[in-house]
């Protein structure tokens, strides 16, 4: 029997031998690789070998060799397309990636990409140059598609592939081909009605592009093209329509309709399968070409069995990106259509948290959870630096915070429901734009001299307050902003009785509606306050003097009632003071000195400014 020491030596020697053998094998392998490198083929020969391997890929077992197939497709994308064979190879590769069939004509100058419900014709010349691209849906004649033509001419094969994917998704519907055809007819009918609604609005109002987006019954409609669905652009912020980096209005955007699909908030119009059955139109419902009012509102024919059919599907407005909605707005959309917006009970979150995450995603900071949870954001403006605390957990009613959820699509079943849905989307988008204007990835040190601090608190699902220190006094002032709709924001400034005037409510309202930005508005308020103080140095003194007078119930010397001041019908001398010092104009309350102070300061402001 071997001793443990000898056994250990034996195994140690065996391990050393294995390591030596592996090293020698690795050395031999490296020598072979070096030899291959030194005697490598030319690029033309390598390309030929790759093409030959790709031509044989049809016999490969797809299930067992998916990794190899992916590598071959990667090689295909890397090859330069400069001839007819390379172009047809690339088109066939794109078809396979989207699970579509493909075949070539006998002349090999036409490539057909096919499915059960549609096909795409790509016409080439002998040199591989593009001639035309046509799309044909089930039962229709092929129609030339300028967007697809441009993508292939520019060799934008990824964009061409996205269009094919969009066409595939369009027909991801329940049922057989006959049922899918009916659903496609319903979508076509809806598109015709929506297109007519936009044209009727523009003719009735003579609206330009931005006005059509913000006020149009269906926004700005971009027709379906290739795999891109009909798009309705329904909201843009003032920042969207200013040329980037110049601060000038983009007049091209104001006058023409060639705007990017991604600009602002937009929805795509589609049809999708549902578990419930809905009556959907399979023929246009708008009757006549004359609107019923000066806003371009059309008249619709009644829903009957001759123009509508029951289908296990529904129309949807699909958001171009996930958008936070308050719970009340989600319910309002469901009430408008009679269909729940969310199929399951949503997981509710503080609305401000959702707005912050959405804004950071647009800013390219979606991967920064610490920034999203801080609720404290900084903004650097010309001459000012701000810090905003978004207090989204502040209770708004019944001790609950403002709740919301992300919405990706909104179901409906009649074209007449679209204007009301777009108005709700616009309203929420305007609210989100104002709150989101505070969310920036800028960082400023807390001890920065002159840093101005603001707190934003929700009041309702359409209003909020912005609190900050008075620019002159050491008191707290507050601006309440009420988003009436996407086009109107009402603002009200609240301050202490003895605080100097900063600016008027009308001034704040005009600034907000022009910029839709809280930081820009706060900067304007402070600059206005500085201007007023420079022009009216005695304003604070006037306010302080009036406050003292009200406390002592003394009218100013020389006023008509100074010597003969009486009491009011309820024995209150303040009531008489209001009557004798200031003219009675139905806007003056006759019951409290606070109104007197407000009127005095306002009058002094109007006189001096």
TrEMBL record:
Protein role: Component of the Mediator complex, a coactivator involved in the regulated transcription of nearly all RNA polymerase II-dependent genes. Mediator functions as a bridge to convey information from gene-specific regulatory proteins to the basal RNA polymerase II transcription machinery. Mediator is recruited to promoters by direct interactions with regulatory proteins and serves as a scaffold for the assembly of a functional preinitiation complex with RNA polymerase II and the general transcription factors.
GO molecular function: nuclear retinoic acid receptor binding; nuclear thyroid hormone receptor binding; nuclear vitamin D receptor binding; transcription coregulator activity
Keywords: Activator, Nucleus, Transcription, Transcription regulation
InterPro entries linked: Mediator_complex_subunit_1 (IPR051999), Mediator_Med1 (IPR019680)
Species of the source: Sinocyclocheilus grahami (Dianchi golden-line fish)
Domain of life: Eukaryota
Pfam families: Med1
Record's signal peptide: none
PANTHER family, A to Z: MEDIATOR OF RNA POLYMERASE II TRANSCRIPTION SUBUNIT 1 (PTHR12881)
Family indicated by similarity: Belongs to the Mediator complex subunit 1 family.
Subcellular location: Nucleus
Mediator complex subunit Med1 domain sequence ranges: 70-440
The name this protein goes by in its record: Mediator of RNA polymerase II transcription subunit 1
Segments crossing the lipid bilayer: none
Keyword match Transcription regulation: yes
Any one biological process term the GO annotation gives: positive regulation of transcription by RNA polymerase II
GO cellular component terms attached to this protein's record: mediator complex
């Amino acid at each position: 029997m071997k001793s443990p020491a000898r056994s250990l030596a034996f195994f140690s020697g065996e391990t050393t031998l294995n390591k030596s053998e592996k090293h020698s094998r690795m050395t031999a392998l490296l020598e072979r690789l070096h030899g291959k490198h030194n005697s490598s083929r030319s690029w033309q020969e390598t390309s030929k070998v790759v093409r030959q391997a790709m031509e044989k890929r049809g016999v490969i077992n797809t299930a067992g060799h998916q990794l190899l197939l992916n590598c071959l497709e990667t090689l295909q994308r890397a090859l330069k397309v400069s001839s007819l064979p390379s172009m047809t190879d690339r088109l066939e590769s794109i078809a396979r990636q989207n699970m579509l069939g493909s075949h070539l004509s006998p002349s090999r100058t036409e490539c057909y990409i096919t499915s059960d419900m549609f096909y795409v014709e790509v016409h080439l010349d002998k040199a591989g140059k593009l001639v035309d691209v046509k799309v044909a849906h089930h039962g229709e004649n092929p129609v030339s598609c300028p967007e697809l033509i441009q993508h292939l001419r520019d060799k934008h094969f990824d964009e061409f592939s996205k269009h094919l994917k969009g066409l595939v998704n369009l027909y991801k519907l329940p049922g057989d081909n006959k049922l899918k055809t009916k659903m496609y007819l319903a979508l076509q009918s809806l598109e015709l009605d929506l297109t007519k609604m936009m044209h009727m609005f523009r003719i009735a109002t003579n609206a330009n592009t931005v006005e059509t987006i913000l006020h149009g019954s269906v926004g700005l409609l971009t027709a379906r093209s290739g795999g891109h669905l009909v798009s309705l652009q329904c909201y843009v912020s003032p920042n969207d329509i200013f040329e980037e980096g110049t601060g000038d209005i983009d007049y091209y955007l104001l006058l023409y309709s060639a705007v990017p699909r991604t600009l602002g908030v937009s929805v795509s119009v589609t049809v999708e399968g549902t578990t419930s059955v809905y009556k959907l139109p399979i023929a246009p419902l708008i009757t006549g070409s004359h609107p019923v009012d000066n806003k371009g509102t059309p008249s619709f024919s009644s829903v009957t069995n001759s123009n509508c059919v029951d289908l296990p599907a529904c129309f949807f407005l699909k958001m171009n990106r996930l958008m936070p909605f308050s719970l009340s707005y989600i319910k309002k959309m469901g009430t408008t259509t009679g269909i729940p917006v969310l199929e399951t009970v949503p997981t509710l979150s503080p609305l401000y948290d959702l707005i912050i995450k959405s804004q950071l995603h647009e800013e390219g900071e979606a991967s920064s959870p610490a920034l999203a949870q801080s609720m404290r954001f900084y903004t650097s403006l010309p001459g000012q630096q701000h810090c905003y605390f978004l207090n989204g957990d502040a209770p708004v009613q019944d001790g609950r915070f403002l709740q919301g959820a992300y919405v990706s699509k909104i179901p409906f079943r009649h074209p007449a429901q679209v204007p009301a849905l777009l108005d709700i989307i616009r309203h929420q988008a305007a609210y989100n734009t104002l709150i989101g204007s505070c969310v920036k990835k800028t960082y400023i040190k807390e001890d920065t001299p002159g840093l101005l601090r603001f707190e934003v608190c929700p009041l309702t699902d359409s209003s909020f307050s912005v609190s900050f220190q008075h620019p002159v006094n050491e008191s707290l002032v507050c601006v309440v902003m009420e988003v009436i709709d996407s086009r109107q924001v009402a603002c009200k400034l609240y301050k202490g009785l003895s605080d100097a005037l900063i600016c008027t409510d009308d001034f704040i309202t005009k600034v907000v509606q022009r910029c839709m930005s809280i930081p820009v508005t706060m900067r304007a308020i402070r600059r206005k306050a500085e201007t007023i103080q420079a022009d009216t140095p005695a304003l604070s003194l006037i306010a302080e003097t009036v406050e003292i007078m009200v406390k002592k119930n003394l009218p100013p010397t020389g006023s008509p009632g100074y010597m003969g001041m009486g009491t009011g019908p309820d024995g209150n001398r303040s009531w008489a003071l209001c009557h004798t010092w200031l003219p009675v104009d139905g806007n003056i309350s006759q019951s409290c000195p606070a109104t007197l102070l407000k009127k005095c300061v306002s009058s002094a402001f109007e006189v001096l400014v």
